Amino acid sequence: MDNSIFQHIANGLCLGAMYALLGLGFGFVYTTTRVFHLAQGGIYILTGYSIWLLLVYCEMSLIFSVFLSLAIAALVGVLIEWLIYQPLARRSATAPVVIISSLGVLIVIVNILILCFGNQPLFLRNGIGNVFNLGSVSLSDIQIAELICGSGLIIAFWAFLKYTRSGQICKAISDDRILAEVIGIKVSKVRLQVFAIGSIFVGIASILVSFDTSLDAHLAFPSVLIAAVVCVIGGMRIFLAPAVGGVIIGVLQNLIIWQTSSKWQEAITFGLLILFLLFRRQGLFGTKLRAEESI
Amino acid sequence: MSYITQLLILICLYAILAQSLNLIVGYAGLLSFCHAAFFGLGAYISAILMIKIGVPFAFAFIISVVAVGVLAWLVSYLSIRLSGDFFVLSTLGFQTVIYSLLYNWEEVTAGKSGLSGIPRPSIFSYSIRTQTALLIFIIIFTILTLGVIKWIAGSPFGRTLQAIRDDEMAAVALGKNVNKFKRSVFLISGGVAAVAGVLFATFSSYIDPTSFGLSESLFILSILIIGGAGNMKGPLVGAVALVLLPELLRFMNIQDNIAANLRQIIYGLALILMMRWRPQGLAGNYAFD
User: For the whole model, what pTM was predicted?
Assistant: First the structure.
C-alpha cells in the first residue's frame, strides 16, 4: 500500500508525457498562429483510426503503419490550415470566427470517422503486452515507450526552437507576426510547417494512447480540451511550458484516482483550469502581459 | 398528432434556448459554450424540488429560474475578466464541471440513471394531462419568454449591450459599467435557459445528464450561428431548421444510426461555410466582427 504511491506517480508520468505532447502541439499552433485549434481533436482520432486501419485491418508492418499514419496526420493538419484557417486569416477574421470554424472541422472529422469505423472503441492489440518491474513500480512496454517518446520529443522540440532557423522563425512570428512579415518571412508558409509539426506531435500521442488503452471517437473533444488546459497551466505563449503542465496534470489525475475515484478527475482538472484562468492567467511560467498585449 | 406535437414542443424549447444564448453571444458578443449547463441545471433543480420535496410546479419553476440565474451571474463574474479565447475556454471549463456534477453526484442527481417520474405541470389546481394541453402550455410560455427577450433586447439595456459588443472602449468612455452589463446579461440568459430546462423536465418526465453535455451546448450554439445572431429572427429560423433537419433525413429513408452522424456532419459543414461566407448566419445581423 505504501509503495502504491510510486506506482501512481509512475503511471501519472506516462500519462503526463502524452498530455505534454498534446499540449505542445496545441500550444505550438496557438503561440505561433493564434488559432485556437479545436480541430486538433479530429487529428488525434484520425491518426488512431489510420493506424488501426493499416496495422490491424490491412496487417501491415508496425514501422510502416506508424509512419504512414503520422504522414496522414500532418497532411490533414496542413490541409485544414490551407483550406480553412488561411482564407480566414487573409480577411483577418476575429477569434470567434476562427474558433467556430475549427469547431465545425472537428465535428465533421469526428462524425465521418464514426460513420466509417463505427461507434465502438477499437483495440490495436490484445492483452497488455510485457510488463517490466523496476523496484516497486511495474510499467508496461507501451508505458515505457510513452516515457521515452514523450521526453525525447520534448528535448527534440527544445533543440528545434533553439538551434534551427525554422525554430527561430517560429519564435519571431509568435512575438510579432507583422514585423516578421516585414523582414521577409513568408508567414503563411511557416504556418503550414507549424500545423504539420503540431499534428505529428498529436499523432504520436494518439498512437501511443491507442496502444495503451483503446481508440474511441468520443475522445476527440476531451483530447483537445486537455491540451488547452495543459497549455494554460504551463503558460500560453511559451513553447515548452505545456510539457510541464502536461506532467503535472497527468500525475494529478492519477493521484485523484488513487485517493478518491476516477469519476472526479474531470471535474477537478477543469476546476483547476478555472482557478488558473482566474488567479494565474499567465500560467506557471508566464509573465504578466500588459492589457494591450493580452488577446 | 403526437409526432407533430413533439416537434412543435422541441422547436419551442430550442427557440427559447437559442434566444437566451443570443443575448450573450449576439447582443453582448461573448462566445459562450456552457448554455446546456444552465439548461440542465434548470431541469435538474426543478425536477429534484418536485420529486424529492414535492414542491408545486409554480414554486419549483421560480426557484430554479432564480437559482440558475444567480449561478450564471457567478459564472460570468468569474469569467468575464478573461477575454477572447480564454473566455471561451473558461465557459468550456464550467460546462465540463457542471456536467460532471450532474453525472457523478449520485446522491442528489441519481447519476447516469437519471430522474424519472417528473410530474406534469399544474397551475392553480388545474393540472395538465393531455399532450395538446401541454403543447398549448409550452407555446404560451414560449411566447411570453420571447416577448420578454424582445423587450430586453430593444430596451436601453439591450442597446447598451450592442454598443459594448461593437466597441467596448467607446462604451467605457461613455461611462457604462461594461462588466456589470455583461454580468446582468448572464443572469438573464441563465434564468431564461432554466425556463427551457423546467419545461423540458415536465415535458419529457425523465431527465438524465447526457441531455446536457457539451454536445448539447454545441447544438444550441449551432442553432444560433446557423440561424444568425444579433436579432430576434435568426435564432427562430435556426431552431426551426435544425429541429426539422433530422426529420427530413428520416423521410429520406436514411437509417437512424447513420442519420445521427450525417446530421452532425451537416451542422459542422454549415458552421464552416457560414463562417467563411456568411458569418451573420441565415437571418442574423451580427457577423462576429
Answer: 0.91
